[in-house]
Specification:
Length: about 270
């Protein structure tokens, strides 16, 4: 669904983040600039789309890709000498892909020590831990990322399909009980190899206005990226990865719970 600029701005203000982001074009509909421009478009997109969904205003050197913010927020510049051009628009953060994987096995809960020589020892124990919520990005050394809001934006826009089955942006403690058995002269514990989910978002910038200098003074204004006919732009190598636990029906981490043990040693003080 394509929204013209006045309608889009009004909707963002009236409907709020969750509803407004549901109206943007999917990542697949955006034009990939990677390899089209003479500069690093991955860095360009990650410099523009740092978490905000508000309208933004930039100057760009079209030879080098160097980006600076326009402090006048849309007021036309007195002049735009080549190679400086200006543009304005919004960032969105749609889901590009998603996959699950097995996380590192870790101990959950206390160990059970059996110093006896002949009988097994069984005991009810509490398994506990904290679910995971992390965000990474693809461009090393990226500056200006608004980490305090990017998780909220990604959870609403890119991760909406997994709201109830994923711990991203809502990490919390968990606990459950089980029975653990330790054989004679062993120390036993429970471990969890969690199932994790990664949701990848390629940020998309929607161009509202693009301008460059006119010979003899003034500037030319168009409604597409560099007057090429497309308004939604992305760069395939520019992405955020949102990572969290897959949750079971009870809101606890899904995965393989395994009982492990080892022979007692001097540290067990048997």
């Amino acid at each position: 669904m394509r929204l013209d600029p006045p309608t889009r701005a009004a909707l963002v203000g009236a409907l709020g983040l969750t509803t407004a982001l549901s109206l943007v074009s999917p990542a697949s509909a955006a034009t990939n600039l990677r390899g089209v421009e003479p500069f690093n478009t991955d860095k360009l997109l990650m410099s523009m789309c740092t978490g905000s969904t508000d309208k933004q205003y930039f100057f760009i050197n079209v030879n080098t890709g160097e980006l600076t913010r326009n402090p006048t927020n849309g007021i036309p510049a007195d002049s735009l000498p080549h190679p400086i051009e200006r543009f304005e628009g919004w960032c969105t953060y749609p889901k590009a892909s998603s996959w699950t994987w097995t996380g590192q096995e870790t101990q959950v809960g206390n160990s059970l020590r059996n110093c006896g020589n002949s009988s097994q020892l069984s005991q009810s124990i509490q398994m506990n831990g904290t679910t995971t919520s992390t965000t990474t990005n693809s461009v090393s050394g990226s500056v200006g990322v608004q980490w305090t809001i990017i998780d909220k934006v990604l959870s609403v826009n890119a991760g909406a399909d997994y709201t109830r089955s994923w711990s991203y942006a809502k990490a919390s403690g968990w606990a459950t009980t089980t029975t653990l058995t330790a054989a004679p002269r062993t120390t036993a514990w429970m471990s969890l190899a969690p199932v994790m989910r990664t949701v990848r978002s390629n940020p998309v910038f929607w161009v509202d206005r693009y301008s460059w200098g006119r010979n003899g003074g003034g500037q030319i204004n168009v409604g597409t990226w560099r007057d090429r006919g497309y308004r939604d732009i992305k760069s395939h190598g520019a992405y955020y990865d949102a990572i969290g636990n897959v949750l079971d029906g009870n809101g606890k981490p899904a995965g393989t719970y395994v009982a492990r043990d080892r022979p007692v040693n001097s540290s067990d003080k048997c």
